[in-house]
Amino acid sequence: MNTITLDKAIEIGVQAGVKEAIDRIKLDEAEKWNYKKDKRLRNTDLLLRNYNSLMEHYKRAVYTTEKAEDINVNDLLDESRDEIYIEAIYKTRARTQIMIEHIDSVFGYYEYKARKDNDINAIRRYNVIKLLYFEKKKYLEVSQELNCSTKTVNRDRKLAIEELSTLFFGIDGIKL
Fold first, then answer.
1. Which of 29, 44, 137, 152 matches a 20 to 30 Å C-alpha distance to 145?
2. Rounded CA separation 21/15 (Å)
3. pLDDT at 35 over 80
C-alpha cells in the first residue's frame, strides 16, 4: 500500500510540476510578446519623431568627392581610412533612403485608406500624426487645429502608432 501511495504522490507531483512549467512558459511567451510589441511601438514612434532629421541626413550626406566641393577629402584622412568612412556614410545614406521611402509609402497608404473609407476618425488620426511628427506642432496646437481635446490627440496618436507599426513592420507587428 505504501508503493501505491508513493506512486500516486509522484504522479501528483509530476502533474503539478508540468502544470507549473506550462504556466511559466505561457507567461514567458506573453512577456516576450509584450516586450516585442512595446519595442515595435517605440520604434515606430522613433521613426516618426526623427523623420525630418533622417530626411536631412539623406539629403545632406556627403559620401563622394564630387559632393564635397569645399572639402579636400584626401587631406583629411589617409586613403584607406578615407574609403572606409566614405563607404560607411554611403551605406548609412542608402539605408536611410530606403527607410524614408518606406515611411512615405506607408504614410501615403495610411492617408489613402482613411480617405477611401471616408472614416473621419482615421482621417483625424492621420492628421494627428502629420501635425505632431512631420510639422512638429504641439498637442495644444493640434487639438485646436483639429477641434478636439488634447486627450483625443493623445489617444489618436497611440492608436495611429499601433496601426502604423503593423504597416511598417508587417508580420513582425502581429501576434499569430
1. 44
2. 10
3. no
Q: 138-151: b or e for each residue (b if 16 or more CB lie within 10 Å)? A: ebeebbeebeeeee
Contact 133, 49 (CB under 8 A): yes
Per-residue pLDDT tens for 147-158?
A: 999 999 999 999
DSSP 53: H
The C-alpha cell at 30 is 506573453
Question: Does pTM surpass 0.85?
Answer: no
Q: CA-CA distances (angstroms) from residue 79 to 35, 82, 83, 86, 93?
A: 44, 5, 6, 10, 21
The residue extents of the domains of the chain are: 2-49+119-173
Of the pLDDT bands very low, low, confident and very high (cuts 50, 70, 90), residue 47 is confident
